[in-house]
Design goal:
Helix 3 crosses helix 5. By secondary structure, the chain is of the alpha/beta class.
């Protein structure tokens, strides 16, 4: 039985649909976790494969990206944003989402290299969204960000801002293992994920209740989220990781 940790957010539902509706389901044990908890489980050898925030890869021993799928975006991602009541020029403090690993590193890079602002970063706790007011902003990721798109005057989409800075897409999470996984299993795993992507319409139908004036599940899963780890996304991933830890390289096993 292969142990798998997958992100519990809406953006991962197509992958989960594929894993749960393919013959592979008999060979795996899946847990649904926040990105930060996915990272912890892989770091602690509690799972064999994790859909983990790419920012933790430099901390892992022998990390390998095992399939050519990811959670990425080329421009707006919609659910990884810096929310504020004031423009970025007036922000003094940013709360960093406690469920995140990649986006909190990304916003630090953007503040330093793109907005060129010296900002105080504060550790966030559950309920911190209510503290986003005045010159205090906050990074919020995942499904909790959806309703905030209507609430705040200033919404800075982090993937879109990265694109403006680098000209590249962005990769938030990838399927990573720190051990050798049987090639036959990985072939089945890849097929199951692809099956899920081919049936996104079923996920859209199930979660359409999340739609609001600034967000539709159809557009999100078809356009905002990009699932294929293409060559330009590999380039973007390697650039991001070099900014975190220059001596580390990315290993692909597909």
């Amino acid at each position: 039985m292969i142990r798998i940790s997958a992100v519990s957010y809406l953006n991962t539902k197509p992958f989960l649909y594929g894993l749960e509706n393919s013959p592979l389901r008999e060979k795996i044990f899946i847990t649904r976790d926040s990105p930060a908890f996915c990272a912890e489980k892989l770091m602690n050898n509690e799972v064999d494969i994790g859909l983990v925030p790419v920012a933790i890869m430099p901390q892992l021993k022998n990390p390998q990206i095992v399939v050519p799928y990811c959670i990425g975006a080329d421009g707006k991602v919609a659910t990884v944003c810096l929310f504020s009541e004031v423009p970025v020029e007036e922000i003094t403090t940013i709360y960093l989402d406690y469920q995140s690993r990649t986006s909190v590193e990304l916003v630090k890079i953007l503040c330093k290299e793109y907005w060129k602002k010296d900002i105080r970063f504060a550790k966030a706790f559950p309920g911190y969204e209510s503290q986003i007011k005045g010159s205090v902003a906050g990074v919020v990721i995942g499904d909790r960000a959806i309703h905030l798109l209507e609430r705040f005057k200033y919404v800075y989409d982090l993937a879109e801002t990265w694109k403006q800075m680098t000209g590249l897409p962005f990769v938030f999470a990838a399927w990573v293992s720190c051990t050798d996984i049987d090639e036959d299993f990985l072939s089945e795993f890849k097929s199951a994920l692809q099956f899920g992507l081919e049936n996104r319409d079923k996920v859209v139908e199930k979660y359409a209740y999340l739609d609001n004036s600034k967000f539709t599940v159809q557009n999100y899963l078809s356009n905002n989220i990009q699932y294929h780890l293409t060559e330009d996304k590999k380039e973007a991933l390697e650039l991001f990781l070099k900014k975190l830890q220059p001596e580390k390289s990315v290993v692909y096993c597909f």
